[in-house]
Amino acid sequence: MENFKRNIPVVALRNLTVLPGMMIHLDINRDITIKAVEAAMLGDQMVFAVTQKDEDIELPKKDELEEMGTISLVKQVIRLSDGVLRVMVVGVERAQLLEYIEDVEYINGQVQCLQDDSLDVLSELEKKAMMAHLKELFQLYCIETNKSETKILKKITEIQNLTKLVDEVAINILMDYKDQHKIMNLIYAADRFEFICILITEEIELFKYRKEIQSKVKEKVDKNQKEYLLREQLKVIREELGETNTLSEAEEYLERAKKLKASDEVKDKIKQEINRFKSIASSSAESAVSRGYIETLLDLPWDKSKRDSNDLKNAKKIMNSEHYGLTKVKDRILDFLAVRSLTGKGDSPIICLVGPPGTGKTSIAKSVANALNKEYTRISLGGVRDEAEIRGHRKTYVGAMPGRIVTALKSAGVKNPLMLLDEIDKVSSDYKGDTSSALLEVLDGEQNSKFVDHYVEVPVDLSEVLFFATANSVETIPKPLLDRMEVIQVSSYTENEKLHIAKEHLVPKQIKRNGLSRKQMSISSKALEQIILGYTKEAGVRNLERRIGEICRKAAREIIEEDKKQIRINENNLNKYLGNVKYTVDFANEVDEVGIARGLAWTSVGGDTLQIEVNIMPGKGKMELTGQLGDVMKESAKAGISYIRSVSDRFSIQPEFFEKHDMHVHIPEGAVPKDGPSAGITMATAMLSAITNAKVKADVAMTGEITLRGRVLPIGGLKEKILAAKAAKINTVLVPAKNKKDVEELEEEILENIQIKYVETMDQVISSVMIQ
């Protein structure tokens, strides 16, 4: 490599590099640069174009200029306004700045021209291969960048010198001044060749990506434009056909869908259905089906919830003000509230309230909703026998609609209401499916987060719904369904509880409902007690409310007809409004008798006493049972007589007695069916009394089942039975020993003035009730 040195005016460039062979226009306005150009024009018109390291410096020093630059020929100079000089220069040769000579008017520099002999070591074949590759790359670059000018391509194609080809390609590709400066710093042509090949390859890939992105954007824009045009055309066609309603409805649905609080899956389903709805003629039957389906989806509270109340004191106050008693139910709700207050979100329990009619099961659910500040919705399941009532009908059927669960959720308007499943023990099944089985998914906390209604088709989240269910008996509820619920027994009300409920709730409610005021009418406590005992026979207070309502209506009529200012109801004038007493209590017998024992029974309207009578007469050993006894009670009677025969020697009963005498067991009120596993010891006691001619104490009642060996088995409905004994003025009640835990749960008010004796065997029963 031979080196040539010379002095030359220096033109400092900002953010710009001039490469050898490049023709470029420069606008210069600095005095030192203008003076340098003017000096060059007075000589051989050559300048040294070099890039500044920092563009903000006005008078750069040597170390503030790049080392490599280009000796350039000034071909044209034009003076513009504001002292700007426009200069056209052509890069001639790469050179290195050696010394910086600062003249009075401009910068002068000593530069060294560098000759490149790096390609001399390559064979002609290698040079040809390199040129062919670079020409091919440049041609591909021109195609990808849409820069396929014929003149440039022809010029590049005709070049046969590798150094010249490299420099020519460098000035014809797009690159920023930093890349240009990198090329400037590469003295050897072989290094420039490699750098340019890499640069062109990257640019080609970059343009491919940009083209692909532009193509996708253009395709999307074209599609949107096409849809817009088609929509406008369709709008005009529909207007011509008079079918503008469907389109406006579809637009309204789309607006509602945008505002809907729901997941993307739900919104996509709704939009898909709306798009299908647009293509259906409004006069077709399918349009009505599609419209109903879209409106159902839009009306469902997918992600809309209501903030619940966690205030325990307020919840307790509300429940106590609206209901008297029902301690277990209230405690369970307060437990749930306490857990949720600590954890932030407790698992919603599925509570099933089981008890006789009229005990406030349905109303307590509404009271709980008020206490928790929840929306309340009720589903009546009594008599429902079609599975589709729960899961919904498929859209393919005429008149299809969502199931009762989804419909209730829709009416509640939030995803976390209190939903009451009323009379869950009265669902049934037929050839259309098992309704109780359909409820299994609804009431399963592990499954109901994605409950699928056949009509809606999109999973609905029921996990935040607080389910309450009511039933009169658990016997008819299928075991798998019962297993998913937490059963709370709502037992019969005591007379005292009924009196409190009547005073605090029923009387004010009925007075208001019948247009009266507390000043116009009042009912005394004695009158209410008489209504409870003589005019109603129930476990709850439904009939009690009806009787109070009847009094209020008659009182309202008196006020209007007779212009009375005030009416007072007491025990003396009660029969004027309600007529004669309808129910009398079967009080305990005054004298002890042979063959008569008092039993206790549970009925759907509370507890009752059963007087069992047994007569012995000469005969052939037959036993007759009368009084509409069920199979269980008949078996209890047979078990009782078998026990008596097995211990006959203990009571001095002759073996032939049972072969020579007939026995008749009767329970009065024969028109009323009687059955249940709790009259065994009572019938055995009455039969033994009749056989041994021993009297039974009249003031003792008993309940319990008997075995062949004389053991006493536990029973249910204990609270109702003890209340019936109290009403009948019975002093002592025999209860199976295994029911002791049930007695301990009863309120002190129920056990007041009554003696409870626990028995395990018939020997203890006989010693407690029979007078030897």
TrEMBL record:
Active site positions, chain numbering: S678, K721
Stated induction or repression of this protein's expression: By heat shock.
EC number assigned by the record: 3.4.21.53
Gene3D superfamilies: 1.10.8.60, 1.20.5.5270, 1.20.58.1480, 3.30.230.10, LON domain-like, P-loop containing nucleotide triphosphate hydrolases
GO biological process assignments: cellular response to heat; protein quality control for misfolded or incompletely synthesized proteins
Residue span, Lon proteolytic domain: 591-772
Tree of life domain: Bacteria
Catalytic reaction annotation: Hydrolysis of proteins in presence of ATP
Any Pfam family hit: Lon_C
One GO MF term attached to the UniProt entry: sequence-specific DNA binding
Compartments in which it is found: Cytoplasm
CDD domains in alphabetical order: RecA-like_Lon
Main location: cytoplasm
Gene Ontology cellular-component terms listed: cytoplasm
Keywords from the UniProt entry: ATP-binding, Cytoplasm, Hydrolase, Nucleotide-binding, Protease, Serine protease, Stress response
Signal peptide, first to last residue: none
Binding site for ATP: G355, P356, P357, G358, T359, G360, K361, T362
Subunit description: Homohexamer. Organized in a ring with a central cavity.
Protein family according to the UniProt entry: Belongs to the peptidase S16 family.
Described function: ATP-dependent serine protease that mediates the selective degradation of mutant and abnormal proteins as well as certain short-lived regulatory proteins. Required for cellular homeostasis and for survival from DNA damage and developmental changes induced by stress. Degrades polypeptides processively to yield small peptide fragments that are 5 to 10 amino acids long. Binds to DNA in a double-stranded, site-specific manner.
Name this polypeptide is given: Lon protease
Lineage: Bacteria, Bacillati, Bacillota, Clostridia, Lachnospirales
